[in-house]
Amino acid sequence: MTTAALVLLAIGGFGFLLRAILGPSLADRLVAVDGLVVTIFLAVVVRSIRTGNDLDIDVALIVAFVGFLSTTAGARFVERRGG
Amino acid sequence: MTETIVDVLVIIGAVFVMIAGLGALRLHDVYARMHAITKASTIAVVLIGAAGTISLDDGRWKVALAALLLFITAPSAAHLIGRAAYGAEGIDLRIDGADDLAVALGEEGHERADTDSDDDGG
User: Fold this and answer.
1) In this complex, do B22 and A75 lie within 8 Å of one another by their Cβ atoms?
2) CB contact under 8 A, A75 and B80
3) Which of B30, B62, B66 lies nearest to residue A27, judging by beta carbons?
4) Do A27 and B85 lie within an 8 Å CB cutoff?
5) Which residue among B59, B73, B89 sits closest to A82, beta carbon to beta carbon?
6) Which ipTM was obtained for this model?
7) Residue B88 — φ and ψ, nearest 5°?
8) What residues of chain B lie within 8 A of the CB of A71, using their CB?
9) CA distance B79 to chain A (A)
10) What is the chain A residue with the closest CA to B80?
């Protein structure tokens, strides 16, 4: 079942990635990258559920932190520079 | 029993992420995409974080901490992007009806608020 979950996460992440590439404005790209960070976090958690190995959870924790910081910095950048 | 609960939580969370990805592709402006992405991925974080907390042995509190962190920070990050996109120039926004933020800020209104009054059927 975790294989099906990983496939669904890959479909969602592909949508985010396409929107981050296509997105007409910087805010679109920023929101899409935010969703991509969440998807990466979820994929790491699902993978460690699948293998029963919890070494990757540290990676998920750091990704969660860095994702919020980068989104905040990007929001300041959008506010100052424009779309 | 526990494995069934974990499987169901993981599958429902992944379905929410897939819906968020499709919404990011299909919807038409920044706020609509933000609506799809942020809400669905927050629910997915809660569900898959609960599944990891149930399923894992040693790292369960790390999963719970990271999921709680994302549960708090993802909506506030989206709020920041929303404010920035409202104030920035050159972003194609579509605000139907009243522009409440302009009233709250005491401004005149968003410049794109009344430009597409001809086709607001959706």
Assistant:
1) no
2) yes
3) B30
4) yes
5) B89
6) 0.90
7) -80, 155
8) 77, 80-81
9) 9
10) A75
Distance of residue B6 Cα from the nearest chain A Cα, in angstroms: 9
Say how many CA atoms lie within 13 Å of B64 toward its Cβ.
10
State how far the alpha carbon of B98 is from the alpha carbons of A8, B91, B94, B95, B114, in Å.
37, 19, 11, 8, 10
Query: CB distance A13–B21 less than 8 Å?
Result: yes
Nearest to B66 among A4, A60, A75 (CB): A60
Residue ranges for chain B with pLDDT beneath 50:
113-122
| Position with higher pLDDT, B93 vs A69 | A69
Q: Over the stretch B59-81, which tens digit does the pLDDT of each residue have? A: 888 899 999 999 999 889 989 98
For chain B, the first-to-last Cα distance in angstroms comes to: 45
- Interior/surface letters B28-50, b for 16+ CB within 10 angstroms, e for the rest: ebbbebbbbbbbbbbbbbbbbbb
Interchain contact B9–A (C-beta under 8 A)? no
What is the rounded CA–CA span in Å between residue A29 and residue A74? 10
SS3 A1: coil
* Number of other residues whose CB lies within 10 A of the CB of residue B13: 27
Q: Which two tokens stand for residue A38?
A: 């969440």
Residue with tokens 């919807």: B27
B98 φψ region: left (φ > 0), alpha (ψ -120 to 50), beta (else): beta
